[in-house]
Backbone:
């Protein structure tokens, strides 16, 4: 079974600075996707960034980028130029890439609560 | 395009009662997944429906059930409510078609906060 681990329950960053959230996962599958979701206090889960396991290049979305280390099964999220609106719970999630199996099933880590200090 | 909607947003029920939650996916999306979020257990997958069929199921008791209608709207039902069922229930929709895994990208609704007293 696949597992996702986020070892940092809480993190804090100063506004305009950079912060990195950690995530490790365990799987025996070769085809999978990894995601970072953001859940602000309003509770609406928002997709931040996606990484396909078969792509070596790290995904980037504006101020958000990932460091995907497939051999180490590590998938960290870097937030640059942090803004007050980045304060939220961040969840790392895994999804199988095999059709017909558990593709409708996201496996989540426990989350990291990010605070942004003005 | 309208996002995923869930109704009701808040619900208070008594132990032993049953409850039905509703989810309307993004237009054109055929897959709906349900998740339970609690402080202790985090986010846990309940089940996924695609084209009115349950395609995948998480490790929850039979009290939790769901269904999907021909317009892709989905409902989940919890019978004989227990205090531990108090949670935020999230629904997510995706295109869910075969062949291209990108089409499985999930978009979440705002959730239904269920409190069992």
Residues:
């Amino acid at each position: 079974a696949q597992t996702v681990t986020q070892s940092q329950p809480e993190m804090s960053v100063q506004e305009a600075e950079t912060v990195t959230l950690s995530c490790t996962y365990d799987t025996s599958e070769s085809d999978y996707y990894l995601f970072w979701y953001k859940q602000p206090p309003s509770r609406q889960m928002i997709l931040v960034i996606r990484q396909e396991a078969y792509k070596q290049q790290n995904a980037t979305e504006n101020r958000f980028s990932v460091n995907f280390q497939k051999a180490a099964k590590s998938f960290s999220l870097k937030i640059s130029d942090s803004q007050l609106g980045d304060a939220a719970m961040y969840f790392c999630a895994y999804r199988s890439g095999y059709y017909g199996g558990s593709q409708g099933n996201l496996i989540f880590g426990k989350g990291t609560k990010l605070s942004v200090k003005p | 395009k309208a996002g995923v909607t869930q109704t009701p947003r808040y619900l208070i029920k008594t132990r032993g009662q049953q409850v039905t939650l509703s989810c309307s996916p993004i237009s054109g999306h055929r897959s709906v997944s349900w998740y339970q979020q609690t402080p202790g257990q985090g986010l846990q997958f309940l089940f996924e429906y695609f084209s009115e069929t349950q395609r995948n199921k998480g490790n929850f008791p039979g009290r939790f059930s769901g269904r999907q209608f021909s317009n892709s709207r989905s409902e989940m039902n919890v019978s004989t409510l227990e205090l531990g069922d108090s949670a935020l229930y999230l629904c997510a929709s995706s295109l869910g078609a075969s062949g291209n895994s990108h089409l499985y990208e999930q978009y979440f609704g705002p959730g239904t906060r269920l409190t069992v007293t």
Q: What stands out?
A: The radius of gyration of chain A is 14 Å. The first strand of chain A starts at residue 3 and ends at 5. Chain A has a mean pLDDT of 92. DSSP finds no helices and twelve strands in chain A.
